[in-house]
Specification:
The chain contains 3 helices and 14 strands. It has 285 residues and is mainly beta.
Length: 285
């Protein structure tokens, strides 16, 4: 009986090559699959990450920044004062999200769209090495009318466009960079530019099951004023069930894009840096 079985096996192997034999047996070829959780939050620290909320979910984030730390215990390292940015996002599907926010810093409202154009793919076949996301934001300054803003509503508006490119190398390390264009309808002096270009670099290192270190920093292209500071932030992320909690240290007071990229004034040398936290809660609709 064993000889008969071996005889039919050899005949079948010769008639059907290996690939055809797998098809004959109903095996499917391996296909590439999308990489998940490059970052664990829709923001790295201050900067937008390449992540969107899950499809059909509403995400509410609170970005809380205390005051300057330089006064020490007098104001409990800045905790006697704070600025807050409320960030609300809804994902229509896996690729498209819409959001709105409001910051106490310069009374700014913002509207945003986030579109995942390409996803990092792994596996055999048509793999792709990066995730690409387009981010667009409109900010509206709602401070009281004065000699600066006068009567023109357009003076209050600025626009931000970003292309976010990132890659997850393994379960421990992810990185992204974001070429950025900011247009301000109103500038302070004639020497200031309406169009500002920069890039934001960010990364994530996982060192325990529910803990990661994150960081982001902006680099300008072109000239800036003498008091310009690169906006940066460092965060400790704690993943707890339905939300992500981030303890952060940053030199930017405002949490929205126009503030941390072009309006970061803090410096380690002077102690003008800020403790804070981001907390995210997700609601399934």
């Amino acid at each position: 009986m064993n000889r008969i079985f071996l005889f039919f096996y050899l005949i079948t192997a010769n008639i059907f090559p290996q690939d055809e034999l797998l098809d004959f047996l109903g095996e499917e070829p391996l296909v590439p699959f999308p990489v998940q959780a490059t970052f664990k939050s829709t923001r790295i620290v201050n900067a937008q990450s390449l992540e969107l909320p899950r499809a059909k979910t509403l995400e509410f984030m609170i970005q809380h920044r205390f005051g300057k730390m330089k006064n020490g215990f007098y104001d409990l390292f800045g905790m006697d004062e704070a600025t807050v940015h409320y960030d609300l996002k809804y994902a229509f599907n896996k690729r498209l999200a819409f959001g709105l926010g409001r910051s106490s810093w310069k009374k700014t409202y913002d509207l945003m769209i986030k579109w995942k154009m390409m996803r990092q793919m792994e596996g055999k076949g048509k793999a792709f090495p990066l995730t690409a996301v387009f981010f667009s934001n409109i900010g509206i300054n709602a401070l009281k009318k004065d000699n600066v803003y006068k009567e023109k509503f357009s003076n209050r508006i600025h626009y931000i466009q970003q292309l976010i490119l990132g890659r997850k190398f393994n379960e421990i390390f992810s990185i992204q960079f974001s070429p950025t264009w900011i247009h301000k309808n109103l500038v302070t002096t004639n020497e200031d530019q309406h169009d500002l270009f920069s890039t934001v670099l960010g990364g994530r290192i996982k060192f325990a099951k529910h803990y990661t270190l994150t960081g982001d920093i902006s680099f300008p292209f072109g000239n800036r004023s003498e008091d310009y500071k690169n906006g940066w932030g460092i965060g400790l992320n704690i993943e707890t069930g339905g939300h992500v909690f981030q303890l952060i240290l940053t030199n930017a007071r405002g949490g929205y894009e126009g503030a941390y990229i072009e309006d970061a004034k803090g410096s380690l040398d002077t102690g003008d840096i800020f403790l804070g936290f981001n907390i995210t809660r997700v609601f399934i609709l």
